[in-house]
Amino acid sequence: MGLSVLTPSGAVDETLLGGYFRLWLTQEGLLTGNDSADAAFVYFRANDIPLIADTAQAFASGLLPAANVTINSYTAPASDPLFNPVDAGVAELDYGMTVAAVNGRIGGNPQSLVSAYAPELALTRSVLFNYPAGTTPVPAAPAGAIDVTALPVVVAAGNSNVPVNLGGLALLIGAIDPFIMEYADGLPNAEVGWGQLTAPGITQIYRLYDLLLDLEFRTPYLAQVQSSNVASHIVRSLVQAATGNPMGGALATPSTKVTALIAANTNITGLAGLLRLDWLLPSYSRDVSVLSGALVFELRQSQSTGEYIVRTSYVAQTMDQLRNQTPLTLEAPPAIAPVFVPGCSEGNATFDCPLGKFVRVVTQAIDPHSADLVN
Questions:
Q1: Residue 2 pLDDT more than 60?
Q2: How far apart, in whole angstroms, are the C-alpha atoms of residue 90 and residue 230?
């Protein structure tokens, strides 16, 4: 498999998203517009692979365009314990338990996924073998071609990067992943899925990729092992900001106003699974960790009571905003979904959660054996 990189169009979209957060954070009083001064209060942390490092730089150039920012990261071959806790030695996967946990979500029958996702597989096959969707009888695969939609789905032990091996489903993802990239990157319609896919079709096919991520990273056992450390650092950073006192296992300093963690969609998927978070944005399926998407935790304080609350949301550009490189403003923002935190959120429109309650809920979700207190 080749090395993933950020395309020029992807960099533009990420900078546009950073520019939106610049406007929003300035409106909220966390940034002043003086980038050099603001940079001292913004902490960036990114996984050290080219795609993620370049994404972080593009986002930073939109958030603080006139500042020289530092992107904190672990240099390879070291693994960042926030984003790769198993490789970093902070957490340990029991691969027998991994297989059992995933099998337990699908009735112990991996092939049942084939019938459950038959429409998505059928559409994928029609695109890959270039025939109209719905054709009957279904044409045979061309001579010498491998039909990746027919490869058996299994559940077997994986590794620290791919915690469970899903057989044919995993191989299929390599064939369909380019479609959303082609669309978002602004390729002509004739070059998106060989001219056979529009945004709704991509969304339907992409449910197969979402299924893979869901099983590998949202499965409760996997989410707890792989995402406890980043969850622990997030909640400790919120407490540190609220109290103004340094705290072990928190990021940056008590005076930090904005913390930006830039990693893979697998990291967001796992964290959402750990905290049982759900969202739905226009043009996407439910709970999709999309290109340039951000899971946002805001720490707010009531002016009347002094109480701190946590407000959670998921923010991402729609597929057409990505494709058209649409400028983002406070009046024309990216898609934003308020996120309910089970066991914590109140019934208001933004699902606010008292900080103390948020700490308890996250602490209960975390596996203490899969988290460290390294700042």
A1: no
A2: 11
State both tokens at 181. Answer: 């990239």
Count of all residues that appear for the chain in the document? 375
SS3 of the chain: CCCCCCCHHHHHHHHHHHHHHHHHHHHCCCCCCCHHHHHHHEEEEECCCHHHHHHHHHHHHHHCCCCCCCEECCCCCCCCCCCCCCCCCCCCCCHHHHHHHHHCCCCCCCCHHHHHCHHHHHHHHHHHCCCCCCCCCCCCCCCCCCCHHHCCEEEEECCCCCCEEEEHHHHHHHHHHHHHHHHHCCCCHHHCHHHCCCHHHHHHHHHHHHHHHHHHHHCHHHHHHHHHHHHHHHHHHHHHHHHCCCCCCCCCCCCCCEEEEECCHHHHHHHHHHHCCCCCCCCCCCCCCCCCCEEEEEEEECCCCCCEEEEEEEEECCHHHHHHCCCCCCCCCCEEEECCCCCCCCCCCCCCEEHHHHHHHHHHHCCHHHCCCCC
Token pair recorded at residue 374: 């390294």
pLDDT at 244: 97
Mean pLDDT of 106-132: 96
How far apart (Å, rounded) are the C-alpha atoms in residues 173 and 209? 6
Nearest 5°: CA angle at 352, between 227 and 241?
Answer: 65
Between the CA of residue 265 and those of 47, 56, 216, what are the distances in Å? 12, 14, 12
Share of the chain above pLDDT 70, in %: 99
User: Which residues contact residue 96 at a Cβ distance below 8 angstroms, ignoring those fewer than 6 apart?
Assistant: 157
